[in-house]
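Exercise: predict the fold of this chain.
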Amino acid sequence: MGRERPLILSAERVKMLQRGATQIRVPVKNPDYYGCLTGDCPHEKNQADCDEWMAREAPFQVGDRLRIKEAWREGRPSYNGPDFDSKLTYRADETEWPDCKWRSSVHMPRWACRIFLEIIGVRVERVQDITPLQCLESGICLPEAKGVDPNKSVPPDGFEKWSEKRRDEWFESTARAVYFCQCGDAQDHFDAYATYWDAHYADKGNPWSGNPWAWVYEIKTVERP
């Protein structure tokens, strides 16, 4: 079992998780420190050794649990029930009271955290190496998958035993993936990810245009430990 670590996310990035994101990319701090990235490689540029060494250097390791800290508040303007849990409101979900005063994600206590993730894979790559499907897996908002028949895709083994909700989710995600990878305007989706990246990291010295190195964390949602 790995460590449990906090991870602060903006409301937009929480929404990406809610859309089913299975990857998170963050800039590598001080990339010049890592010989494998600068060309001064201690492994004689053996890619397998570099990949293994860089994965061990990542801030988060395979098996680590992340508790997501986000903007939140206690109480709702229209709340009048007895259940305390139902009084928690999260900015990523809220559209009815956009002008509410939110509590900082920095100070979010563990008991208020609702999203827990587990790291299941770690690697490092240039941010512009992201593929169209990986943009989808990062949770960016995509257009509707018009003109795509998800029923033409072959369901996985055991599909008939899934719940109706899980089958519907599979069909929806498959249709979007097929559309995303086959459409002729894939550049629009790269642009969407670049816009997201620059909104979070450009002012920190890591613009998309500079093609910075990024840690790529593969994640899955887990129950609260």
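Check your answer against the key: Residues 213 and 220 are 23 Å apart (CA to CA).
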